[in-house]
Design goal:
alpha+beta; elongated; 4-stranded antiparallel β-sheet; disordered C terminus; Alpha-Beta Plaits; Multidrug efflux transporter AcrB transmembrane fold
């Protein structure tokens, strides 16, 4: 199949390149408009109690909650003085005349103590917007923002909509910054790796095509389902990173085939037969890992899954179609515009020293083959040490602290918590329906006695539906808030009434429960897909099981470092974030999907070359050593390039993006060095021929349906010979 595909692409190379040019043009124009089309929310489970409480409250009482909080303050005047009161009154009057505004609640209207700071030099207004959905309200806020300022007073804007707007804006800025930072560095590194400018630019072309193509795909998906703006982060990370990795792998093999004296057409055919098959297996594995996110009900995670799948599949298709077509056109000109590099002297053109049997990777391979047990024990101990902090992970919902310290929504939240009585902009909502308001009063008194509750008031009432607003000590994401939610849900409801507990803290609780319930299914899907694809690729039941275990080791080490840094607060000054003492549970789940796929990606890179040598020689030790020798440099280079892509995101302002970036960098470094270069070869050396064992029926399945790197039928000997712990 792959050899046939290589011949097809060579014949249709100009048509393929023309189609790629059209896709890039569409992606750069229509596809780039995806930023203005995607949604900003999607963090809730629609079936959770908190979501049902919000829906019922909106249907029966009208939409509740504070969309925008406008905090006015003065260094000298108090809220009672004309210098403060008059500017606020004028601004509020103007706001109430705007079509974007549904209601404005102020201390001057209600005399509510919670709306005035304890020093009486600040007050805030609660603005409810008229939009029916989150995207509409964000657009309304953007238009309304200039009208919120009060002359002569300091104005700071917070609230849910302001937070979403700030997060979306900074996400877009972070992506742009990451691309601007990573592209020049990638080009320089690729020139150093390939030693030529033409070869170095081909991975960037494929990377750009993957990202722009994924933009088009996601915008098309957005026509039939809501997609979160945060999917763009995954598209850039995964799409650009994997496209560059795949292109590096394909171009390296193509140059190797040319150096062996083959014609351009034959080199493309051989490249597709070997590296093309590896790219297909890797792409499908990573895409299926990202697809595991689709089982979660939160639109945020589903969007990440959709964006990741689009990016991976388009990167894979580009590497299997556009790249070989480009190589067929370039031929030996792939080595044009050579850059003289001192360390490349003495190597064959287009072929590194490692390929000729020397170099650092050859020495590492020989060392691991001679002493597999010390390597196995040493690496395993180090990975366990790195993973240890993960055992004390604490989960909690994200809040305004994911923003930089000077971001207005965060400043407003912190000032209200510190300077205002009650101290919470995210009260817990308790919806009581089915009984009149009079029957709710005894229940209200019971709510006020719950530990941690500071005040309870009726936020809205109509007919047989009453909404209670419960304030509490501490932060919305803190332990006190979570304890209050649990206690409120345990309270017996008034006779004949239904009670639903909602609000931000309740939504955090429901999110954790929802993710916990579906996490085992996600793990099962990822592991099952990996086992199946790696079996079809390598014809072994041992290697896929070992690959899953190796993946878990590298991911566990990454999670341990993430907890040590972002939960415990180490390196917070260096990285520029505020530690919260907990981790948002959606972050490890997203990291698990991406890192499991990426770890398998490097496993496939290594084992593909090992299997190729095993099919040729039947010598396990020599196959493992030569496989590491031939792919070690490529895997290291691919990891370095991916780290450059990811590192751009750690420079942004959103702390949860930093968390994912740091976690991915740690996992990539660990996986490409300790795991793939040392642990995997050591275990394969010890397992000997067990590496290639499969039961008779499964061996026959592989011989018939396996995805192999050869035109010839799969040999029966490696699968049926008696396994023995020999080299």
């Amino acid at each position: 199949m792959f050899a046939w595909w290589g011949r097809v692409v060579v014949r249709a190379r100009w048509a393929v390149l023309a189609a790629a040019a059209v896709l890039m043009a569409v992606g750069a124009t229509w596809g780039a408009g995806v930023f203005g089309e995607l949604t900003g929310g999607g963090f809730d489970d629609p079936a959770s109690e908190s979501s049902r409480a919000a829906e019922r409250a909106t249907a029966e009482l009208g939409r509740q909650g504070a969309d925008v909080i406008v905090l006015w303050s003065s260094d000298t005047a108090t809220v009672d003085q004309p210098a403060f009161r008059d500017p606020v009154a004028g601004t509020v009057t103007t706001l109430r005349q705007r079509s974007e505004v549904a209601t404005v609640t102020t201390w001057y209207d209600t005399s509510a103590p919670a709306l005035v700071a304890t020093d009486r030099k600040a007050t805030y207004a609660v603005v409810k917007l008229a939009g029916a959905d989150e995207d509409t309200r964000i657009a309304q806020y953007e238009r309304l923002r200039p009208a919120l300022d009060a002359p002569g007073l300091r104005t700071e804007i917070g609230g849910t909509v302001a937070f979403q707007y700030e997060a979306n804006t900074r996400t877009t800025e972070d992506i742009t910054r990451a691309e601007l930072l990573s592209m020049p560095v990638l080009l320089v590194l690729l020139v150093l790796i390939f030693g030529g400018l033409v070869a170095a630019t081909t991975p960037l072309v494929i990377g750009g095509l993957a990202v722009l193509g994924a933009f088009v795909a996601v915008r098309l998906l957005n026509l039939v389902t809501d997609v979160s703006i945060f999917a763009i982060n995954v598209i850039t990370l995964i799409g650009l990173g994997l496209a560059v990795d795949y292109a590096l792998f394909v171009v390296s093999r193509f140059r190797e085939e040319l150096a062996a004296g083959r014609s351009t057409a034959e080199a493309v055919r051989r490249t597709m037969l070997t590296a093309g098959r590896t790219v297909l297996v890797s792409g499908l594995t990573v895409a299926l890992a990202m697809a595991s996110l689709l089982i979660f009900p939160q639109a945020f995670l589903r969007s990440m899954g959709l964006g990741g799948m689009a990016a991976v599949l388009i990167a894979m298709l580009a590497a299997l179609t556009v790249l070989p077509a480009l190589l067929a056109v370039l031929g030996h000109r792939i080595d044009a515009v050579r850059v003289p590099l001192p360390w490349r002297r003495g190597t064959r053109r287009g072929r590194p020293a490692e390929a000729a049997g020397g170099g650092a990777w050859a020495r590492i391979a020989r060392s691991v083959m001679r002493r597999p047990v010390p390597y196995l024990i040493g690496v395993a101990v180090l990975l366990v040490v790195l993973a240890t902090p993960f055992t004390r992970i604490t989960f909690g919902g994200f809040d305004e602290r994911v923003l930089p310290a000077d971001a207005a929504p965060r400043v407003v939240s912190e000032r209200i918590a510190e300077e205002f009585p009650g101290g919470s902009v995210a009260p817990i909502d308790v919806l009581v329906s089915g009984v009149p308001a009079e029957a709710v009063r005894p229940f209200t008194e019971r709510v006020s006695t719950v530990a941690g509750v500071t005040a309870v008031q009726v936020a809205a009432s109509r007919g047989e539906t009453t909404l209670l607003s419960v304030t509490y000590r501490g932060e919305p994401t803190g332990d006190i808030a979570q304890d209050v939610v649990r206690e409120l849900r345990d309270l017996p409801a008034p006779t004949g009434a239904e009670v639903l507990v909602g609000g931000r803290s309740a939504a955090d609780r429901d999110l954790l429960d929802s993710l916990t319930d579906r996490l085992p299914w996600m793990a099962l899907l990822m592991a099952g897909a990996t086992l199946l694809l790696l079996f079809l690729a390598f014809g072994s039941v041992v290697l896929p099981l070992k690959a899953v275990l190796m993946n878990l080791l590298s991911i566990g080490a990454s999670f341990g470092v993430v907890v040590w840094i972002f939960q415990d607060g180490h390196l917070s000054d260096l990285l520029g974030f505020t530690p919260t003492g907990f981790i948002d549970p959606s972050n490890p789940i997203l990291m698990l999907a991406m890192l499991f796929g990426l770890a398998t990606d490097y496993e496939v890179f290594l084992l593909s070359r090992v299997r190729e040598e095993w099919d040729r020689t039947g010598d396990n030790t020599a196959s493992v050593a030569l496989g590491l020798q031939r792919t070690g440099r490529i895997i290291t280079a691919a990891a370095l390039l991916l780290i450059v892509v990811v590192a751009g995101f750690t420079t942004g302002g959103m702390s949860y993006i930093k968390l994912i970036g740091v976690g991915m960098i740690v996992a990539i470094v660990v996986d490409a060095t300790l795991v793939r270069a040392l642990l995997v070869p050591a275990t394969m050396r010890l397992l000997g021929r067990w590496n290639w064992w499969a039961p008779g029926p499964l061996a026959r399945v592989y011989r018939r349906y396996g995805i192999r790197e050869t035109d010839e039928p799969a040999p029966a000997v490696p699968e049926t010979r008696h396994p023995a712990f020999t080299g």
